[in-house]
Amino acid sequence: MTDIILRYSGTIDEFTGDGILVFFGAPRQFSDHSRRAVLCAIEMQKAMKALNDDNIKLGLPELSMGIGINCGELVVGNIGSNRRKKYGAVGTPINVAFRVQTQTIGGDILVTAPVYERVSSDVVIGPVREAELKGIEGLVTIYQVIGVGKN
């Protein structure tokens, strides 16, 4: 997945257990950061199919992943102290993305309304739903991305 993320100029903030926190648009800014994130997610899901084909041949279990995508303003830079610091991002949009990801099942790519508004002409969507997300006030509209193309 790392190679795919880097191909779309994503910045890997950290590996979180079985997850990867990635952001787009920093340190290099891109006007199409949301589009890059969604296209990256689609390619990552396609890569899971190839991985699982190999796993089946080797007698290993199939794996699945769900991806949640949000956008918004973040604090990005060297975070920490002189003793330990890292380049990373913090902010409510990341918290929302984590919460959206918890709504996924294997194979899902779920995006928030602000992301969908930026990529609507590039993607095909499936079901749209409202969800209560832990720590987030009010309902959040979540769109399921099922492919590239026109709706």
Strand order of the largest sheet: 3-6-8-7
The CATH class, by name, is: Alpha Beta
Mean pLDDT: 93
Share of helix, binned: 25-40%
Can you tell me the overall shape? Answer: globular
Looking at this structure, what is the CATH superfamily? Nucleotide cyclase, GGDEF domain
Count of DSSP strands:
8
Evaluate the radius of gyration: 16 Å
* Secondary-structure class: alpha+beta
Detail the poorly predicted runs.
none
Order of helices and strands: HEEHEEEHEHEE
Regarding quaternary structure, what we see is: single chain
Terminal-residue CA separation:
27 Å
Q: Which CATH-level-2 architecture?
A: 2-Layer Sandwich
Can you tell me the number of structural domains? 1
Given the structure, what is the number of helices?
4
Q: How much β-strand is present in the residues?
A: 25-35%
Can you offer a commentary on this structure?
The chain is α+β, with helices and mostly antiparallel strands and 151 residues long. The chain has one domain (2-148): Alpha-Beta Plaits. 32% of the residues lie in helices and 34% in strands. The strands form 3 sheets. Strands 3-6-8-7 form a 4-stranded mixed beta sheet. Strands 1-2 form a two-stranded antiparallel ribbon. A hairpin with a 4-residue loop joins strand 4 (75-80) and strand 5 (85-90). The longest helix is centred in the N-terminal third of the chain and has 25 residues, at 33-57. The radius of gyration is 16 Å and the shape is globular.
